[in-house]
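RECORD TYPE: protein structure
NAME: Polysaccharide deacetylase family protein
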Amino acid sequence: MKKLLPGYTWHREATGKNLYLTFDDGPIPEVTPFVLEQLAQYKAKATFFCVGENLEKHPEIALQILAGGHKLANHTYNHLKGWQTSLEQYLQNVQQCQYILQTIVPAAPQEKHLFRPPYGRITGKQATALRTTYELIMWDVLTNDYDATLQPDQCLKQSIAKTQPGSIIVFHDSLKAERNMRYALPRFLEHFAGLGYTFETL
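PREDICTED:
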């Protein structure tokens, strides 16, 4: 996938023991505060790819994310599948989410926004149109925490095995992922913090 889609960010160049935790689909009151508590224990920073309608419903949690030194980023307003959405509708949906984000935290002039396509599904035309304004963030470690058939210990084991310096790791602060994420995240943080890694925003 990385070779087929070279215009996307799959990882950061490793300058040391740095990892980049990301959380998709929040913020929601049932799960996101737990994530913030775990990150705070390890002084870990993360990037939250937020669904616009969740931001609209729970702006107070978005402010908690920022207060913890984390970053907010765009994950469309309605968690759209790019492959099944017209170019115009997709771009409007992304912009709708970005408008809400900028009411919460104004962007610096000329700053490139961060965007992650839901499900990692985006057409070439959508990507080309967005790339002038956004850095398109993918991942090299997908925890699969949302997979109900995956046992929590297996979710953790696979995630640890795939992670290397500079990795961009995807967890989800969602109800669907809650069982596996609540098990895997604290242990993931403990494991890599014990090895001397730091967790930074993108």
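COMMENT: Residues 18-199 form a domain with the TIM Barrel fold (CATH 3.20.20.370).
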